Amino acid sequence: CFSVPFCSSWQPHSSSVPVNLLKNCSDYCYSARIRSTVLQGLPFGGVPTVLALDFMCFLALLFVFSILRKVAWDYGRLALRGREKTLWKRLPDFLSFPGRDDEIRDKCGGDAVHYLSFQRHIIGLLVAVGVLSVAVILPVNFSGDLLENNAYSFGRTTIANLNSGNNLLWLHTSFAFLYLLLTVYSMRRHTSKMRYKEDDLVKRTLFINGISKYAEPEKIKKHFEEAYANCTVLEARPCYDVARLMFLDAERKKAERGRIYFTNLQSKENTPSMINPKPCGHLCCCVIRGCEEVEAIEYYTKLEEKLKDDYKREKEKVNEKPLGMAFVTFHNETITAIILKDFNACKCQGCACRGEPRASSCSESLHVSNWTVSYAPDPQNIYWEHLSIRGFIWWIRCLVINVVLFILLFFLTTPAIIITTMDKFNVTKPVEYLNNPIITQFFPTLLLWCFSALLPTIVYYSAFFEAHWTRSGENRTTMHKCYTFLIFMVLLLPSLGLSSLDVFFRWLFDKKFLAEAAVRFECVFLPDNGAFFVNYVIASAFIGNAMDLLRIPGLLMYMIRLCLARSAAERRNVKRHQAYEFQFGAAYAWMMCVFTVVMTYSITCPIIVPFGLMYMLLKHLVDRYNLYYAYLPAKLDKKIHSGAVNQVVAAPILCLFWLLFFSTMRAGFLAPTSMFTFVVLVITIVICLCHVCFGHFKYLSAHNYKVRWDAGQRLKGKGALPLGKYIAQVLQDSSPEGEATESEEQGSQDEELITTDGMNDTDFQSCEDSLIENEIRQ
User: Fold this and answer.
1) Where would I find the CSC1/OSCA1-like 7TM region domain in this sequence (predicted)?
2) Whether 388 contacts 209, CB under 8 Å
3) What is the SS3 assignment for 229-287?
4) pLDDT-based confidence at 70, cuts 50/70/90?
5) 508, 581 Cβ separation under 8 angstroms
6) For residue 636, what pLDDT band results from cuts at 50, 70 and 90?
7) From CA 146, how far away is CA 136, in angstroms rounded?
């Protein structure tokens, strides 16, 4: 193992530090790692080997991607966009990127533009940090003489190579503070350019919860017009439980499309089609008892009639299942703001410090005193089927999901502990006896990436099953939960030589905490520790981004749905509904995790910054491609983007923490560098907490949003915006017996969103027919 002078010869300020811990510092720190990840004696920490192997894997995955796009081109949003005759179609798919942001905004929505702008500012920030770290910090680290004078020694590039009394350490502390200022400036520049456009209808609509369940829209209108002078209510829309109705409607439309498909097929070929109505029926090559084939048109006709009857009965009962919620639209933004302020004025510790809201003749019957009022989200942002899960039921559901999640992740926090469990069954034990760089460097970092991709997936689905009312809420919860978990799993626990939260809390509350704390924090600055994270960033840059381009989980789900289809008509339906929205929450969490790792080690291990920049460049290209060709547009609010900005600021704060640990252990807490770092850190944390919790220090924060409204759109909104947007699509359908073309148009969110791409239904129809022309006669 690398000799670590300050780990073995450093004299601790506390005499209670066990000698045996200091003597075995490296083993102590790496005990939490996959055993083969200890970078022992390999040239430059194994970084060149890992870089070469990961790059070759990247090229191989790109080759696989180019083949998949030719063989399975109908997977993703690209299939729904049809056969657009553009110059880009002649180029390889992975080289055809959209150009300007205006094009991205038209095809993918404003949130995609904000996301890509965020990435560009992070790239610019990493360019500045990379220049400073490589041009200034790296030579300073090289100037030290604590570690062996070897050109292949990775430790010489780290802060561990400097003596505790070296005045050049002031440069590290100053640059960490400079990185914090650069981060805040970069994010303020990003948010100032966003100019978030608020929809006029959203600014004039309030979401009210706690209304009497059987309140009539006329009474709601009457209340506001009586209680507030010059108030005109344009519309009041009560909410109903439509979860089952939406399910029946979707199944009915699928059955209708199946009937129409086989009717058209029979008219062309004059031959009735037979299908196996069981799941995976089209894969059965033999007829067995219970899986007999039936006539397709007859089967889908009966199924459609049954679902129509169920749909009609459910729709008749919808008005009997109110939720005690309503969307109320007013004539202008001013009166909307007044009403919102009236219902949300000054609450202290849960106790209202205000009088009752303005009363009317309907106040008592509407239970106005129980109302919770807020701005309504965008209609496209609402999960209408989730509104029925509310109150005590929602909180119990959320609590159970998160308790199970916490128990699971409490003991399986890091990939290292999973590998340790595998070692008990001698799965990875043979690897220990190998000293091949391919095994000891490439394989462990690949395992780390694979497990770090698997575990956050569990976190993501926990947010999905919580049944949030809005897409923004779901993405925001996913982002915060995944980011917090990833930081513990990828950065904090491995850096401290801990394997799980269980071990972390046992160490934190143990009597020997102070005795072991010094050695735990020494783990952060072991040279091999920095090399480990450099290898992780390299793996994320090449393998992680290539896997994002392939979208293997989505492709597997697509294949499973195709296999479960019962006929060619259902396979066609799967192909028309396989594209889904971009998950901004998970994407932000992943990206910010790698960025935080890079910024945290940008001073102690500056060689990591160029690889972090490489990761962000590839990430930007991959996400730009996926947003344009693979995913549907999403309509979110600005809270998801502001939450990502807050997470960015956490990265340089962790960098300051790392330097504080280093300075305290080397020179003591009262050393000038330690005190300076501590003061800067405390001031930064206080400002961040005051801004997040109380809204203070706005001019020192990383946020600089400019919300604007276009005057023409405002006037248009007052007179021309269609009413009835705040109602579930299933309640807007006039009847289930609509025309086939109407059903086709309304049957898919994919199709509704793709119509904005300038593709008509005829083009879509011909495109879909070409996809399955070889399947029809099977």
Assistant:
1) 397-669
2) no
3) CCCCEEEEEEEECCHHHHHHHHHHHHHHHHHHHHHHHHHHHCCCCEECCCCCHHHCCCC
4) confident
5) no
6) confident
7) 19
Give the whole-angstrom CA distance, residue 299 versus residue 218: 45
| Token couple for 40 | 């022992």
Token pair for 459 = 């976190």
Give me the chain's average pLDDT, please.
75
At 673-722, the pLDDT tens digits run 888 888 988 888 888 888 777 666 665 666 665 545 444 344 343 433 34
pLDDT score, position 660? 86
DSSP element (H, E) containing 347: strand 347-348
CA distances from residue 771 to 79, 80, 559, 567, 755 in whole angstroms, order as listed: 9, 11, 15, 14, 19
CB atoms within 10 A of CB 778: 7
Q: Say what the pLDDT of residue 753 is.
A: 46
> How far apart are alpha carbons 383 and 282 in whole angstroms?
33
Show the tokens assigned to 287.
């007829």
With 0-12 / 13-18 / 19 or more C-beta atoms within 10 angstroms meaning exposed / middle / buried, residue 467 is buried
Q: What are phi and psi of 262, to 5 degrees?
A: -75, -25
Question: Which residues, in sequence order, are bridge partners of residue 328?
Answer: 206, 236
CB 198 within 8 A of CB 305: no
Q: How many CA atoms lie within 13 A of 696 on its CB side?
A: 9
CA dist 517 and 360 (Å) reads 64
Nearest-CA neighbor of 418 among 492, 493, 487?
493
Do residues 603 and 162 touch, judged by C-beta distance below 8 A?
no
Token pair recorded at residue 594: 């790698």
- Kindly report the pTM of this predicted structure: 0.79
Number of residues that make up the chain = 778
Compute the distance between CA of residue 748 and CA of residue 632 in angstroms, rounded to an integer: 12
Q: Taking Cα atoms as reference points, which of 528, 745, 617 lies closest to residue 30?
A: 528
Helix (H, G, I), strand (E, B) or coil at 382: strand
Cβ atoms of residues 14 and 514 within 8 Å: yes
Token duo for residue 232: 């005109």
Residue in the block written with tokens 């923004």? 472
pLDDT per residue as tens digits for the range 454-472: 767 788 788 888 889 999 9
Q: How far apart are CA 497 and CA 30, in angstroms?
A: 6
> What is the arithmetic mean of pLDDT over 62-84?
68
Q: Considering only CA atoms, which of 173, 178, 192, 175 is closest in space to residue 121?
A: 192
Residue 11: pLDDT band by 50, 70, 90 thresholds? very low
pLDDT of residue 92: 46
Written as six digits, the tokens of 416 are: 């290292």
Please state, in angstroms and rounded to a whole number, the distance separating the CA atoms of residues 708 and 722: 21
Confidence bin at 489 (pLDDT 50/70/90):
confident
Rounded to the nearest 10 degrees, what angle do helices 527-539 and 584-600 cross at?
150
Annotate 432-449 with b (16+ C-beta within 10 A) or e (fewer): eeeeebeebbbbbbbbbb
Q: Confirm if 56 and 538 have CB atoms less than 8 A apart.
A: no
Nearest to 481 by CA among 493, 469, 466: 466
pLDDT of residue 365: 84
pLDDT tens, position by position, 55-64: 998 999 999 8
- pLDDT tens figures, 124-134: 999 999 999 99
For residue 404, the tally of other CB atoms under 10 A from its CB is 12
What pairs with residue 470 in β-bridges? Answer: 382
Residue 314's contacts (CB-CB under 8 Å, 6 or more residues apart) are 244, 245, 248
Cα separation, 167 vs 164, whole angstroms? 8
Q: Dump pLDDT digits (tens) for 350-378.
A: 444 555 678 888 888 888 888 889 999 98
Other Cβ atoms less than 10 A from the Cβ of 728: the count is 21
